[in-house]
């Protein structure tokens, strides 16, 4: 195929996974799904998400699975079992990156690590990326902006000089990043990134980031309150029936970060 044809086919073909067994039951030819109707996972697939018992890099994935209504098993491995109990080494054979989160599809028929790859795999398979290349690219763009701020938040959370640095994070980093994200929503005019009512995976990532930022305390809450569009996304996602049920359930993991963090720390 010539490059131009290959490029053009990007815009006319449904998104595909590398696993034929997952794509073979695609019922709609890749049209954008209303709500989060599963496109690929229409026959039973067993999904297991493996991570530490914290929100960290896995909570976006959990929330996206919850919103999709896809059943999944959560395997939460203790820090001790992973580091000292030999689990990290055991899993390395199937997990070249050697880190979590890890998604196991059909008991290991397909194994995926790298949190953003897992998020996009599920989003592509459920329509939460909008179902076409343009919509998916817009989701990816916002998701990367959100991930940039999330990385800075995580660096701060584990910084030994957290107390000295949190003020600058809230008043500079957070304000600058939220100004940009608010601008993205302002340009779109709809509540969610892609439409008024159809949530995307990037909106869900924003929800979780805001929730983690609120844990920084009153100063952070005051900043968040100044961003109307971001606040609207946060509140409306929290109220979505599947998400609300998850947040109220024991499946919602409380700790945001590992035990050494200064905010949202895991307590044994
Ligand atoms: N880029 C990777 C980073 C994964 C990562 O840093 N995982 C950490 C937990 S947040 C981990 O597995 N730490 C234990 C280890 O490295 O053995 C991703 O996004 O998934």
TrEMBL record:
It holds the Pfam family GST_C_3. Residues 132-256 form the GST C-terminal domain. It comes from the Eukaryota. Residues 14-33 are annotated as: Disordered. GO terms for biological process: glutathione metabolic process. InterPro entries: Glutathione-S-Trfase_C-like (IPR010987), Glutathione-S-Trfase_C_sf (IPR036282), Glutathione_S-Trfase (IPR040079), Glutathione_S-Trfase_N (IPR004045), GST_C (IPR004046), GST_superfamily (IPR050213), Thioredoxin-like_sf (IPR036249). GO terms for molecular function: glutathione transferase activity. Residues 45-130 form the GST N-terminal domain. This is Glutathione S-transferase. It comes from Capsaspora owczarzaki (strain ATCC 30864).
